[in-house]
Structures are given as C-alpha cells and as structure tokens.
Amino acid sequence: MNTNTFVESAAREGFCAAQAELAERIARLTPSDGVHDTAVNSLQLIRMSAPTPCQPTLYEPRLCIVAQGSKVAMLAGETYRYDPLNYLVVSVTLPMIGQVIEATPEQPYLCLRLDIDPEQIAALILEAGPRAPSPGLDLGLYAARVNAPLLDAVLRLMRLLETPQDLPVLAPIALREIHYRVLVGDLGHRLCDLAMADSRPHRIARAVELLRQRYLLPLSIEELAQSVHMSTSSLHHQFKAVTTMSPLQFQKQLRLHEARRLMLMDGIEAVAAAHKVGYESPSQFSREYKRLFGAPPRSEIELVRSNARLA
Asked: Mind listing the pLDDT tens digit for each residue in 4-16?
C-alpha cells in the first residue's frame, strides 16, 4: 500500500468512526421518536423508528445533519436528499414537503437540527472576507457533502452536552466553527449572499421575514416592495427565484400552516382556526387546506392524531 492510499484509507476510517460516534450520541439522547430539545437552545435532535408519510412542513432556516437513515425535502417538484453523506441547509423559511425514507427500529433515523444564526454568518464574513457573489439568485435551500472538518465541529458540540458546566464558554465556540464550516463548504456562497446587506438575496430574506410577521394582515405587494427597497416587478421575480412561489402564495401557505398548528396543538375547530388566520370563507379555507395537506381540515387532523397514538 503506497503512502497516499494509506492516508486515504485512514481518513475514511476516521470519518466512519466519527459518523458512528455521532449516531451513538444522538441515539442515547433521544429515547423515543420525535423532536428533542437540548441544553443548547438552537440545537434539536430527531429520532424516527420508521419511514414517515409525505408531510407538508414549514422549514425554518436551519442546518440538518443526519447520522443514520435518510430523509427527503421536496419543493416545486425537486427532491433534496439528506443522509450521513449529505447535509441540508435551509437559508430562508420555506413551506416544503418532508419525508423520512430510511428508518427501522434497529437503525432509526437520527438527525441533528441547528438553527442558522444570520448574525453569526455576517460576523464570520466580516472576519474571513466575503466570497465571490453568485451570478444569479439561488433557491433558499441546498444539499451539500458532509466533510471531516464539519463533522468534527459537530461532534465537539455534541460532546459538550455531557458536560453542561462547559456549555456557556465552549458551546459558542463550537457553534461558530460549525457556521464557518458551512459557510466555506460546498455552496456556502448562498449563505454569504443572504447575509450581505443590500444584496438581492438579503432583501428577499427580509421580505420573507416581513411576511412571517404580517401574515395575518392583507398583503400589499407595493408596501412589501417598498419595505425592502425593490420594485414590485423585481420583488415578484426574485421572491419566486428564492422560494419557488409568489409572495401571495407564500402568505397563503403560512396561514394554512398556522391554522393547522392551532387545530392540532390547541384543539381549535376548523372554522375558528380559519377565521384566526384571516380566512373569511370556511369553504375556501377547506378547499385550500385539502389542496396543501391532502384532506379536509377535520379529517387530516384526526388522521395525524390517530397516527400519533399508534406510534
């Protein structure tokens, strides 16, 4: 075996060992299926022991790293797979469809989900220097290859969960490195674009955030465009390039997701939930809810609760 082959073999073994340690640590901290909070506010751990149905979900700006199993996110006919070799970055809030596709009781789907901090990204750009901007607008999510430096940084953060006394001092350092590794990794220029003030992606990210804050109010495209210093035509075109939908479609999906949360978590009836999120017509709400979630409100909520009892 020549030197290069030996080094490559050792590197592969080290990478596999790191992946195995990450899976073991997540499994130990997730005794049951579902999403588990941690002592690090921005970090959550996920475990699923079986594949899941396709589920419309509101994806927040996050980094998702899978230690075992695999999942897909679907948006506008495109599928993004994330697994132990590929991480997912969601750079702006996006309504998507998610599905765990590989999971068993013996080898459950294990994933960590880390909120992306725009201020951390902006600070790192100032220190490391901006990357070359993208030639055009990119979609607000991407999948990229996991590399050893990123995996090492993630493991350091996970190990800190066993020594809570060290978290206040060392967790910010580990989080900073994780953000940096994503920023300089494959397709990291997309995060750079979003964090750079007055860039087109940054303005669209701001428009998304304003829609999230005002989704209950009647939408004025003119006012939204003025708020982010864009023309209405540019806002329409560039918003769709980043999110695959118009601002009006985006607002509608935000309202439907919030109505679903109210029904599922707070036990509110469909008509009341529709009214709370801005629908005047219950029949219109029911039609649009069925189009997005696959069944009328009451039936879909009952199915979700039934599946949760069986899990």
From this structure: 565 566 677 889 9
